[in-house]
From TrEMBL, chains A, B:
Gene3D superfamilies: Farnesyl Diphosphate Synthase. Its cofactor is Mg(2+). Keywords: Isoprene biosynthesis, Magnesium, Metal-binding, Transferase. The gene is ispA. This is Geranyltranstransferase. GO terms for molecular function: (2E,6E)-farnesyl diphosphate synthase activity; metal ion binding. It comes from Hyphomonas neptunium (strain ATCC 15444). PROSITE patterns: POLYPRENYL_SYNTHASE_1, POLYPRENYL_SYNTHASE_2.
């Protein structure tokens, strides 16, 4: 395991512990709901978004407690979106992170409600004074998360993805869709680290540029995995887009073209980090990780 | 139309206008999502929860803009919960407020996403500096809403409702379920008016007691309507609980017993308002309205 991977694992463990403490215990007649929330949020995930919150904030010497709670809130949003996306009326997936999806392990109604509850919990976590002393910082973290996750962010991207299933897609549409569907939350991760770390404007812009390029590279890499990944390693069904006749970066660019695009975006992403000099070495490594995952 | 009903109509219109401005316009490739959000949120509703926010805040001379935006956020939560509750995997309802439910007018995936987007929008609205100058007030409004709407509030209540479908229910379970499922948001409406109006502790307690009794009375009255209402007046399917073999306040107490319980709760609710003297006359009227609706 490389140094970088060790750090990624450490952050993932911390976030899982934080989520375990933040999600209400399974008690009362509604205990089934908490069990489903825990099933969705505590399964092993790479926790890439939380990782970016923590590593970005660390560059500015920000409080780890603030970063960890914000990372946990962001992960609640990510996990809720997976639960809803996996529903039969959406992507209809049976497995996620190597275990049954929530509607398979429980039922559809519970999956809808567990997603709703995780989404709501994200904002409760950020609103708490435990997350940051300054209510102005908390409210900014909330406003930006709502933007990233809402109708003009992640949910909007998911809507485009659903609508486009029956119509042909070109590179522009897919790029836009992915920028909303997965890019918005990745951008939020970097932005949140900058907010908590009181980054200067030039630094915030650099982080935004980095997130933009990295987010797209991440998604193209995901499409490459989908096209040629091994189900047992990836932990979920693969070749779904091709089987469903859906266009994606790989079907439009070919595997080699997609790989080239990832390399280009990776180089661009790294350039944005120059402003941070040596402090950015973990973020620099994260780009290579995205490029080559999973090992 | 009584004075009270006129006021209720005025507030409902204001809230609809506010929601029309706050929900993003239907544009871009994700326009379908905004159309579904608008279908769900702009249909004629009684807007009882917004009404309580505005009338409570008005007792304290609070800013109408702050109250109206908070009321709109609360209504987003209420509307999202209706969209998700109407889904085939939940209550499977085809009509709501006299029009097709979102999954009927659009499709199930769009209904899931429109609900998610309305839920997210509620927090975006509250986080904005337009809602209140003081970020500490905004963050408190957000934290309390997340409590009222989350796993130990509305969504928890809905989970109990789903789980209890197959098992017999007694009065205690139903009372607890309703306190979470519908009571929590009604309590929030009164609490939010008090927060924005900087109510003193004794006043906040009185509002909480009032909300508690009124919320339960409201739900029992709903069960009475369900048992003997006219579908064309109520605007949604009636006799659903009886048809589904579900216990509710009417099946457990009988119509007369339920009516008596409503009268008792209404009297209790009014007593809580004594502290506010004449200023509470609109809230006093609202109790009678709940008792006798629809006319």
């Amino acid at each position: 395991m490389t140094n970088f991977e060790q750090r990624l694992t450490e952050v993932a463990d911390k976030v899982t512990v934080a989520l375990d403490q933040l999600i209400p215990p399974a008690s009362g007649p509604e205990a089934n709901l908490m069990r489903a929330m825990r099933h969705a949020a505590l399964a092993n995930g790479k926790r890439m978004r939380p990782f970016f919150v923590l590593e970005t904030g660390a560059m500015f010497g920000a409080s780890e407690k603030s970063l960890l709670r914000t990372a946990a809130a962001l992960e609640c949003i990510h996990c809720y979106s997976l639960v809803h996306d996996d529903l039969p009326c959406m992507d209809d997936d049976d497995f996620r992170r190597g275990q049954p999806t929530v509607h398979k392990a429980f039922d559809e109604a519970t999956a809808v409600l567990a997603g709703d509850a995780l989404l709501t919990l994200a904002f409760k976590i950020l609103a708490s004074s435990e997350t940051h002393d300054d209510p102005a910082v908390r409210v900014l973290l909330i406003e930006r998360l709502a933007d990233a996750a809402g109708a003009r962010g992640m949910v909007g991207g998911q809507m485009i993805d659903m609508l486009e299933e029956e119509s042909p897609r070109d590179l522009n549409t897919i790029t836009r869709m992915q920028r909303l569907k997965t890019g918005a939350l990745i951008s939020y991760a970097l932005e949140a680290g900058g907010i908590i770390g009181h980054a200067r404007e030039a630094e915030r812009n650099a982080l935004a540029g980095f997130a933009n390029d990295l987010g797209l590279a991440y998604q193209i890499a995901d499409d490459i995995l989908d096209a040629e990944g091994d189900e047992s390693i990836v932990g979920k069904a693969v070749s779904k887009d091709k089987d469903a006749g859906k266009a994606n970066f790989v079907t439009l660019l070919g595997v080699d073209g997609a790989r080239q695009r990832v390399r280009l975006l990776a180089a661009q992403a790294k350039e944005h980090l120059a402003i941070f000099r040596d402090k950015a070495h973990i973020l620099l490594h994260s780009v290579d990780y995205v490029l080559n995952r999973p090992r």
